[in-house]
Batch of 2 targets.
Target 1
Amino acid sequence: MSEESLSQIELEMAVLSRRIASVSRNKREENLVRAAYLLLFQISTHGPAGVKGLAEELQLDISTVSRQAASLDQKGYIKKVPLPQDKRSYLYEITEEGKREMTEYQQIRREKVNELLNGWTEEERAQFGVLLKKFNDSVKVYWSKGD
Amino acid sequence: MSEESLSQIELEMAVLSRRIASVSRNKREENLVRAAYLLLFQISTHGPAGVKGLAEELQLDISTVSRQAASLDQKGYIKKVPLPQDKRSYLYEITEEGKREMTEYQQIRREKVNELLNGWTEEERAQFGVLLKKFNDSVKVYWSKGD
DNA sequence: ACTCAATAGTTGTATGATACAATCATATAG
DNA sequence: CTATATGATTGTATCATACAACTATTGAGT
């Protein structure tokens, strides 16, 4: 039951949250914002999708995704494809420029993470990656039921 | 150099960031907000401090801390103590009620984390705690120099 | 076939943590 | 004694988000 790991995770999550909140504000991000990045990533890995599906996948409100998508569309990173069989629906698909932009942003992020993990051993990196993913998965499960 | 761990951490951090952004919005938090919680925690573990010191410690803008402190003060969780030798300065110290509130909030958070980490082994929890702390420390170092 | 409910998406509005800039009061240096 | 520095507060803007209201289209039941 180890109170200690529990307390540590609880506290460090709080710390990380604040850092993240801070970084997403003051960083004059280039073209892509983190939120939009994940949207691009989703489309790019799972193919074209409508806002409803994207919202579910990303666990965001539809309105939020709608705005993000509109913004990406306006920048030319994704494009709206009408569905013939349902005139209410669209699919957003990623454009070549969108792919380029996403990859570039991803590269920048990876470099930053790489600098950040400067003194880390390969073992630690690998473990952290795995556990972080596990954590996110746990959160996803936890949220989709109750709460 | 393992591109893989790097990519994984990079991506999962993005995911976690969005989740955190999401949770801090839609959760009708009780009395304490995460940001304020860390402020209380800081005062409670490191003793009374002024907003300037707190802002440095928490790596936030002074104005942000000032508002958070004012809010906590107003709720009676911390109190302002004037410094006799410098009439511009105050120390904020935690009140009994503040301690109680902080502990209670902490307890709730721990329970949530505990539920979240439901299927995790003790080994994984311990590792994750350690690595998460290491990550936060790395971020702190990374930020305090350049960037 | 007509009406009404369901559904996909957009838009209006509010919120909350944050940063930056301006300001106020006090302190310190020249 | 004045000018500058410093601690703190307050004004303003931003941004991702949620919820609610709305529009347009679809489908279901009679």
Note: Helices of chain B lie at 3-26, 34-46, 51-58, 62-75, 96-116, 122-144.
Target 2
Amino acid sequence: MRILLVEDELMLADAVRDHLQASGEAVDHSASVVDAEIMLRGTNYDVLLLDLNLPDGKGLDLLRDLRRSGSATPCIILTAQDQISDRIEGLNAGADDYLVKPFDLNELSARLAAVSRRYSGNPNPFVELDGGVEVDLAGRSVLRDGAQIDLTSREWALFDQMVKRPGQTLSKRQLEEALYEFGAEIESNTVEVYVSRLRRKLGKEVIKTVRGVGYRVEG
Amino acid sequence: MRILLVEDELMLADAVRDHLQASGEAVDHSASVVDAEIMLRGTNYDVLLLDLNLPDGKGLDLLRDLRRSGSATPCIILTAQDQISDRIEGLNAGADDYLVKPFDLNELSARLAAVSRRYSGNPNPFVELDGGVEVDLAGRSVLRDGAQIDLTSREWALFDQMVKRPGQTLSKRQLEEALYEFGAEIESNTVEVYVSRLRRKLGKEVIKTVRGVGYRVEG
DNA sequence: CGCTTCCTGACACCAAGCTGAACGCAATCG
DNA sequence: CGATTGCGTTCAGCTTGGTGTCAGGAAGCG
């Protein structure tokens, strides 16, 4: 597996590279966003490991640009402990998972395996759901019976969470965190309202209600 | 599934224990870190439910020690609403998920299933029954002829009891205890009604009536 | 056949969930 | 710069679905 690690803390970068190479992965390392862009242009990576705190620019922009250009490369973001909003933004910008520093190297391996497994099954980035709905997770686009459906940013934020965990029931609380800042607990039925709108756009079958727990989309 | 609940609020602890026992889990309870350490030494638990606000010490340290000693036991932490930093630290210390108090008991069950599935190396063992019915006990899911069947929480509580003791005939009394709180027994035919509903969903063959005694599911 | 036990359709109640409508706000347009 | 438009959020009233109860019928058993 070919991995691009974007990380400016060299000690950490070395540790990660050693660990991953020990288990047979091919790891390229870049310490800045500029370098990373160049390397991404030249090589097709299987996974992107992206630190969000880089000296020469926002790692988030790198990820957004990547997604905007249509890349589906799975991305795991690395954030410091206190940068909570980064994590949310990262997931919204198209990241697939996150790790909070300092993290256990074995956990990194586990997350890598999970993320790559999720993508290896389907070479095309479209996930097919019930009701003739197809989703391009990286490209932020949704088709229903072949026709493009436009989702607003909040609608997407919610839907994306569910599609990325097919078959798993997500609580309203979990989903609310995709909408707001981590920890913001607002007493409201906003999630229900968005589910309602999504169902109107995508059909009733896609999002299933699990009473007393939350919502789920099938794999 | 064997669960260790570390929680000092007794009301909450009782509610959690009742709910989980009703769906057939084995729940041990400890109200302090010291006790928890002792219990962890003596038993192999499948999941650890850990409140972070304990009187006699940091629940976080318990978790860290556990991880440091090499244990991979899945852990869900319970935190109060306003203690966001606890959640971050918890996830950092090796927790797998968290719940914010007050939480819905059904949501707890769902998270437990998700966490345990994540750890048991993906697919859970399916128990095969008569009539083309398959049951995933840990994942709380039932298939009939390959199609997913949704059970309500009460239906599951009953069915789970029977599936866990295949070949054994359970009295209505026993089954009633899976439905309600321990003790308060009202004379009614609720169990019969639920058996009827289950049969409609799963077919007639799965649950056998043992006249004058109770019900039974074949292994 | 008569008695007991069990089954199940129907109903009422309540909580959970759904959604139309209104409002605020910000961005955009004329 | 006011008007317009689209999105996010809230609220209230409505619908849906889970639960427990009952009554009448079916099935087992002597």
Note: Residues 165 and 217 of chain A are 8 Å apart (CA to CA).
